[in-house]
Amino acid sequence: YRPDLDAELMDILIIIGVILFTIVIALITWIGIPGTFIMSVLVLVCGWITGFAAITATHVLIIFTISVFLEVVEFFMGGLAARYYGASRRSAVFAVLGGLAGTIIGVSILVPVGALIGLIAGSYLGAYLSEKLSGKTDADATRAALGTVLG
Question: Helix H segments across the chain?
Fold first, then answer.
């Protein structure tokens, strides 16, 4: 029995594990799962593995609350961008509602990337249709809708 060999093997396994974990996280982020929620889940897992000794349940709750807050802020940025690009207040609200509906529909149709595609398409359509119903030209409605997508 050679403890030094076990330590070397463990070091190699840890390095391989970290590399694989990094690749998986990069792919999950690329698919469109919010990074703040990935971080929250990782903190929860770390706390669970250590028996909530270093990371308490309070820490997990605080980080999860911050993650939810950041996602809500990001959610409303589409509406603010629509306002910046000349959309009406109603169009900004329609962009947010369209993004929410698009996300729900998109994730139910195409699980890995449907949420992202649905969010973009729903926000665009919500702002565009609202602007057209307000009597704006195609160019103005398109500008407001693109501003929503950029937001």
Answer: 3-31, 35-49, 57-84, 89-109, 114-133, 138-150
Other CB atoms within 10 Å distance of the CB of residue 129 = 16
The residue type of 61 is L
Q: Rounded to an integer, what distance in angstroms lies between the CA atom of residue 102 and that of residue 86?
A: 22
Please, which pLDDT band fits residue 78 given cuts at 50, 70 and 90? low
Assign 20 to helix, strand or coil.
helix
pTM: 0.54
Amino acid at 106: G
Q: How far is CA 101 from CA 12, 75, 118, 125, in A?
A: 46, 12, 8, 11
What pLDDT shows up at residue 8? Answer: 84
